[in-house]
């Protein structure tokens, strides 16, 4: 009996160890593919940014159009935004049965919204715009770093990423209670994208923010960015739910996002930021920058420079040596001599006046009218008050915001560029230690990364990651969690899974733990490997080239070890391919793989019913997300259709980049050839079909 018990125990431990290894491999697949997509998004955006920086419009009309297409929301003046998003002109019909809002908001309004959204009702566009208008007014008065104290409430609840999963927010409120004077919340960004109910989450959070402005605090995440929203679903969600007023609602959301605070500080001891820090993170700078200038953190406006001196490029694109060379900006004062630097206040005042004169000169040269004066905001008042502080460059301010929204911790020492995501940096425990010591902090709370248990400590428990979107990759893939902090600042965690299937799995565990665990891992594992096989198929051509480099005798076979090395060299996902091989390679004799047959099997799994040739299908699989994002960028009014004018102006960018001379008539002929149904617009299917036809051309 004793020997039998030992054998059972050994079998059980081996089996659990194998399941844990499979679980970790599955997790790495999901995470590697997610970060790879983020890299693609940033590369695509950098490409368009490069085009914008290099392209010289031939007329003021063309310049204005391109600016509207790629620099969304930044050029809107205060009065123009109010006029564009005029909610008062929108009538609510008598047939509307959804919730009604009146301002100032009351707790009953929040309760009505929660009940309506549970019943799948939709808030009328007038109320959405009105809510966004009031939210924007409130956010503009908030500092960049919100200061919260546990003295005014028993505890503060911190929630991480929600990513459009409304069921998770409902479950948090069910378990922890609704926001109230005695129940404070901090929501740490990434409210939108990926999930299907991002808009409802924002409406609920903004409503509670206006009802309880001292108890509800919202931080900006890296997905509160209109360029990220183009790829990950929020833009599409808004336009599908509000077909008539969707453009106005999107415009207001974009403007509200840039006014969200960047961080929250609890009792001057716990800093809450969405992503992380770097070795250059400066809270003093973050406290004083004008955060609303960064509508999209992905793009920093660049000014062309030559020999380190600013200059303005000529409108007609002539070089500096030509007759229409761009006038240089002199950094020397024209009207008054510089005062002595001994008097810092006088020198600072003179410097600001000189800079303003240069800005006015720039505006006159490029015919840009001065913006209307906006009402004073918290950050602008801080900037005016602290005249003795150094003036930071736009590049320095942008990097501060980018780092706190996009960075991740790493176990190694130091700080390095985050090439996995493509933005922000990796910061080590030494960076954390120095930062905490500099600002007398106990620990950091951040989000930004999905964790299997919903939370995770690192850096000797000095950095806490909290993630509130359960079942993020697949049903059963991870728990969600939130953390509660009392006056002692000791974290208490609550975990959950907001899904009926996951609930059934936990009930099944009472009858058989291993059976339930195996079923859960198998389901998630199957989804992960399906996504990985799609990724492999999308790189078929590159894989064949890599395999042939190991098959010098053209036998059509390579070793499994070479297969693993070649796959990693192409996909660069950092996965343990030798361990994953049994799930990906089903047939291999004598440790040799017939790679063409293996790729044919992948193609058979992915081939659609349209009988598209494999090479074309491979290209579409590999580039569909990028093509869809490009389509949405060109589709400036988010109508789901590209107008001829939008296509023409975008093609001028591409032709300028590729040095292709094409007349307006040539562009018109091209766009008409893509418009297959001749309705005067290009839809997404026609856009994809154009790439298919190009692929088939000899």
UniProtKB/TrEMBL annotation:
Required co-factors: Mn(2+)
EC number: 3.1.3.16
Signal peptide stretch: none
An example Gene Ontology molecular-function term: manganese ion binding
Region of interest (Disordered), ranges: 308-343
Comp. bias (Polar residues): 308-322, 331-342
Annotated keywords: Calcium, Hydrolase, Manganese, Metal-binding, Repeat
Catalytic activity of the protein: O-phospho-L-seryl-[protein] + H2O = L-seryl-[protein] + phosphate; O-phospho-L-threonyl-[protein] + H2O = L-threonyl-[protein] + phosphate
UniProt cross-references to Gene3D superfamilies, sorted A to Z: 3.60.21.10, EF-hand (1.10.238.10)
Domain of life assignment: Eukaryota
Biological process annotations from GO: detection of stimulus involved in sensory perception; negative regulation of MAPK cascade
Domain EF-hand: 538-573, 622-657, 662-697
InterPro entries, alphabetized: Calcineurin-like_PHP, EF-hand-dom_pair, EF_Hand_1_Ca_BS, EF_hand_dom, Metallo-depent_PP-like, PPP_dom, PPP_phosphatase, Ser/Thr-Pase_EF-hand_contain
Name of the top EC class for this enzyme: hydrolase
Family: Belongs to the PPP phosphatase family.
Full protein name: Serine/threonine-protein phosphatase
Protein's organism: Pheucticus melanocephalus (Black-headed grosbeak)
Lineage: Eukaryota, Metazoa, Chordata, Craniata, Vertebrata
Name of the gene encoding the protein in the UniProt record: Ppef2
């Amino acid at each position: 009996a004793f020997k039998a018990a030992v054998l059972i125990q050994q079998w059980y431990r081996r089996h659990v160890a194998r399941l844990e290894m499979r679980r970790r491999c599955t997790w790495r697949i999901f995470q590697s593919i997610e970060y790879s997509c983020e890299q693609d998004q940033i590369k695509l955006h950098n490409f368009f940014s490069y085009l914008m920086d290099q392209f010289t419009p031939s007329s003021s009309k063309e310049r204005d159009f391109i600016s509207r297409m790629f620099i969304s929301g930044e050029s809107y003046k205060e009065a123009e935004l109010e006029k564009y998003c005029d909610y008062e002109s929108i009538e609510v019909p008598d047939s509307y049965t959804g919730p009604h809002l009146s301002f100032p908001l009351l707790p009953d309004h929040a309760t009505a919204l929660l009940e309506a959204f549970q019943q799948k009702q939709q808030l009328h566009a007038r109320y959405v715009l009105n809510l966004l208008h009031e939210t924007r007014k409130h956010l503009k008065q908030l500092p960049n770093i919100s200061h919260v104290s546990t003295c005014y409430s028993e505890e503060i609840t911190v929630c991480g990423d929600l990513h459009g999963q409304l069921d998770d927010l409902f479950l948090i409120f069910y378990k922890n209670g609704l926001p109230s004077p005695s129940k404070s919340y901090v929501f740490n960004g990434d409210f939108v994208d990926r999930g299907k109910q991002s808009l409802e989450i924002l409406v609920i959070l903004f409503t509670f923010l206006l009802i309880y402005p001292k108890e509800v605090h919202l931080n900006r995440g890296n997905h509160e960015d209109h360029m990220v929203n183009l790829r990950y679903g929020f833009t599409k969600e808004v336009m599908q739910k509000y077909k008539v007023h969707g453009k106005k609602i999107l415009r207001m959301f974009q403007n509200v996002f840039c006014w969200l605070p960047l961080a929250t500080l609890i009792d001057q001891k716990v800093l809450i930021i969405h992503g992380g820090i770097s070795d250059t993170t400066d809270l003093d700078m973050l406290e004083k920058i004008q955060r609303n200038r960064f509508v999209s953190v992905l793009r920093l406006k660049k000014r062309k420079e030559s020999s380190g001196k600013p200059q303005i490029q000529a409108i007609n694109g002539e070089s500096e040596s030509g007759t229409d060379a761009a006038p240089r900006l002199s950094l020397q004062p024209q009207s008054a001599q510089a005062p002595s630097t001994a008097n810092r206040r006088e020198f600072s005042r003179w410097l600001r006046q000189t800079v303003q004169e240069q800005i006015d000169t720039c505006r006159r040269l490029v015919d840009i009218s001065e913006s209307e004066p906006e009402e004073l905001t918290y950050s602008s008042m801080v900037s005016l008050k602290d005249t003795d502080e150094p003036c930071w460059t736009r590049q320095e301010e942008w990097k501060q915001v980018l780092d706190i929204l996009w960075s991740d911790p790493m176990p190694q020492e130091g700080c390095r560029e985050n090439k996995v995501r493509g933005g922000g940096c990796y910061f080590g425990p030494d960076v954390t230690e120095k930062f905490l010591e500099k600002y007398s902090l106990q620990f950091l709370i951040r989000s930004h990364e999905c964790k299997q248990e919903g939370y995770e400590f690192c850096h000797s428990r000095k950095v806490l990651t909290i993630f509130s979107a359960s079942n993020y990759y697949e049903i059963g893939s991870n728990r969600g969690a939130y953390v509660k902090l009392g006056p002692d600042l000791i974290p208490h965690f609550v975990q959950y899974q907001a899904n009926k299937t996951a609930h059934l799995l936990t009930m099944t565990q009472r009858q058989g733990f291993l059976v339930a665990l195996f079923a859960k891992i198998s389901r998630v594992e199957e989804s992960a490997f399906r996504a990985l096989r799609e990724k492999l198929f999308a790189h078929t051509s590159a894989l064949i080239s890599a395999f042939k480099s190991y098959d010098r005798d053209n036998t059509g076979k390579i070793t499994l070890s070479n297969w693993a090395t070649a796959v990693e060299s192409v996909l660069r996902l950092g996965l343990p391919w030798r361990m994953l091989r049994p799930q990906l390679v089903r047939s291999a004799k004598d440790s040799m793989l017939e790679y063409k047959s293996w790729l044919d099997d992948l193609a058979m799994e992915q081939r659609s019913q349209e009988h598209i040739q494999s090479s074309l299908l491979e290209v579409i699989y590999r580039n569909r997300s990028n093509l869809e994002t490009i389509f949405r960028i060109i589709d400036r009014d988010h109508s789901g259709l590209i107008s001829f004018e939008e296509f023409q102006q975008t093609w001028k960018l591409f032709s300028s980049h590729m040095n292709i001379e094409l007349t307006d008539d040539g562009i018109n002929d091209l766009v008409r050839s893509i418009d297959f149904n001749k309705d005067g617009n290009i839809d997404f299917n026609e856009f994809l079909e154009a790439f298919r036809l190009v692929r088939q051309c000899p």
